[in-house]
Amino acid sequence: xxxxxxxxxxxxxxxxxxxxxxxxxxxxxxxxxxxxxxxxxxxxxxxxxxxxxxxxxxxxxxxxxxxxxxxxxxxxxxxxxxxxxxxxxxxxxxxxxxxxxxxxxxxxxxxxxxxxxxxxxxxxxxxxxx
Length: 130
Known about the structure:
Blueprint: H1 11-28, H2 32-39, H3 46-53, H4 62-81, H5 86-91, H6 105-112, H7 114-127
Helix pairs in contact: 1-4, 4-7, 6-7
């Protein structure tokens, strides 16, 4: 199996990621605790979240970069699944779902961490027939 080396994005790219992910959190109407959980940081780390909102580059931490990549893929899937209903695409992350035993996708990520993020993304990938 061949491994592909992924370089850490440049500072400007990481600033763009910070802007994108904080905008996504606003659309999804996530609390600070939920935002921190999705990023895999301590809920008491409000300064980091505030910095991201102000354009500070996201960390070079691979876990956090991967999490942001999965969140952006989730967003893309939702926009493709609900092209005529942006409100539903944004509301979906906080809506209870039978596929997740009545939890919302955000609850799944908060409860299961990175694995929960993969579960939500996998569900949407399958829903799109990928």
